[in-house]
């Protein structure tokens, strides 16, 4: 049961009521105070103060201050008047309950309106910010377009000026060439005339006709300035050349690449993506980083190290489904099958690993030795000693200094001899 706070003091003016409520050592926060138009409640467990006010107040402007072990209320009256008492006297329980419920409902509606108003204000602020951003971007875009237009006009003027300078330079050069040609032609003509006068005695008829032919309209001398101008080519017209390049996946140029290797790499990548994106029920629950064959291989190795051979086999199976070209996956899974006595599966995985470990190079010697030893062990456990001895001898050819393999091979030879003698 709550303890009612009966002790309080109050005073009033024509427009306000001042109420002081002692806290009795309790600590109050704004969450402990509820104030409506005609209902006031302070709930500080285990203390409780509840009052149905004599007349309505302005709950929006009314205030409450906490300090010095008291709560000081300043309640502003809606209508200026002097109250006969702080609380409503002679009110039955039903009326008190009704006023209490109405105060709570009004408080809820007010909180809802405030929330909606805040939401609307927030939306309006966002809208205003968006419009302001759009205006700024539009102004910036216009500024950039104006700068581009100014630069374009400037470049166009400079280009026109350069073209005019080029034309003036060509005209000056052509005039200069004409003057030089005339200076060269005149002494040549004089020398030619002197030679003809000395060597030939021209006849009257022929000389006239020759003079006409040289001086007529149809003359075509190679030293003629008009012919020189006609033979000059027309200036080239300005144009834009578009160059199209073949799209390439690789950053290197086509002349520096190896097409066969690139096509093989692209094919492998497409195959890997197809396998990963295929509808495999085992891969649906995996994360993106777990869909990596190397990650699954490391997980299988850790499980094998702690003796969880079934879990390791499951990890290697998923890795093989993602990439079936890694020989170490088959080699490690063969070791798990040997521990689980799945001898036929161990032989299959060892054989598959040997197929992938081709061509034989120094880098894969240790892997090939393990594959032969594990397959030979599985054969011997199936009592196929001849096949097992072949694998051990193949491992000895790769690593002849391995004493353990040599001892195991010698044991298998003794077993084979013992079976032959017993038979």
From TrEMBL:
SUPFAM superfamilies: HSP20-like chaperones (SSF49764), TPR-like (SSF48452)
Domain of life: Eukaryota
Sections of the chain in a coiled coil: 88-150
Listed PROSITE patterns: CS (PS51203), TPR (PS50005)
Gene Ontology CC annotations of this record: dynein axonemal particle; extracellular region; neuron projection; nucleus
Location in or out of the cell: Cell projection, Neuron projection; Dynein axonemal particle; Nucleus
Annotated stretches, region: Disordered: 183-219
Keywords of the record: Cell projection, Coiled coil, Cytoplasm, Neurogenesis, Nucleus, Repeat, TPR repeat
Ranges occupied by TPR repeats: 369-402
Stretches assigned to the CS domain: 3-87
Protein name: Dynein axonemal assembly factor 4
Biological source species: Orthonyx spaldingii (Chowchilla)
Encoding gene per record: Dnaaf4
């Amino acid at each position: 049961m709550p303890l009612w706070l009966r002790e309080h003091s109050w005073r009033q003016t024509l427009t306000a009521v001042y109420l002081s409520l002692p806290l009795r050592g309790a600590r109050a926060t704004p969450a402990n105070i509820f104030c409506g138009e005609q209902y006031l409640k302070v709930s500080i467990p285990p203390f409780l103060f509840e009052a149905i006010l004599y007349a309505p107040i302005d709950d929006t402007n009314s205030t409450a201050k906490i300090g010095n072990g008291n709560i000081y209320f300043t309640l502003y009256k809606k209508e200026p008047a002097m109250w006969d008492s702080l609380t409503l006297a002679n009110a039955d329980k039903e009326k008190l309950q009704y006023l209490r419920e109405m105060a709570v409902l009004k408080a809820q509606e007010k909180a809802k309106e405030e929330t909606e108003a805040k939401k609307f204000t927030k939306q309006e602020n966002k809208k205003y910010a968006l419009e302001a951003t759009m205006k700024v971007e539009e102004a910036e875009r216009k500024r950039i377009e104006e700068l581009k237009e100014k630069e374009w006009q400037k470049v166009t003027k400079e280009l026109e000026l350069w073209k005019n300078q080029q034309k003036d330079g060509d005209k000056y050069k052509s005039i200069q060439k004409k003057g030089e040609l005339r200076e060269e032609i005149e002494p040549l003509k004089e020398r030619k005339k002197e030679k003809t006068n000395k060597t030939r005695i021209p006849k009257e008829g022929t000389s006239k006709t020759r003079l006409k032919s040289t001086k007529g309209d149809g003359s075509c001398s190679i030293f003629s300035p008009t012919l020189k101008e006609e033979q000059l080519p027309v200036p080239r017209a300005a144009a834009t050349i578009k160059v199209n390049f073949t799209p390439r996946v690789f950053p290197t140029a086509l002349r520096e690449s190896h097409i066969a290797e690139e096509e093989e790499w692209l094919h492998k990548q497409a195959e890997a993506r197809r396998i990963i994106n295929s509808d495999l029920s085992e891969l649906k629950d995996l994360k993106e980083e777990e869909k990596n064959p190397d990650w699954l291989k490391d997980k299988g190795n850790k499980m094998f190290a702690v003796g969880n051979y079934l879990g390791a086999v499951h990890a290697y199976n998923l890795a093989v489904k993602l990439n079936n070209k890694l020989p170490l996956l088959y080699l490690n899974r063969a070791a798990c099958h040997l521990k689980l006595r799945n001898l036929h599966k161990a032989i299959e995985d060892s054989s598959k690993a040997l197929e992938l470990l081709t061509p034989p190079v120094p880098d894969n010697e240790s892997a090939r030795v393990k594959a032969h030893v594990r397959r030979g062990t599985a054969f011997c456990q199936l009592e196929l000693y001849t096949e097992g001895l072949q694998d051990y001898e193949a491992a000895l050819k790769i690593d002849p200094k391995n004493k353990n393999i040599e001892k195991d091979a010698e044991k298998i030879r003794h077993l084979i001899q013992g079976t032959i003698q017993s038979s």
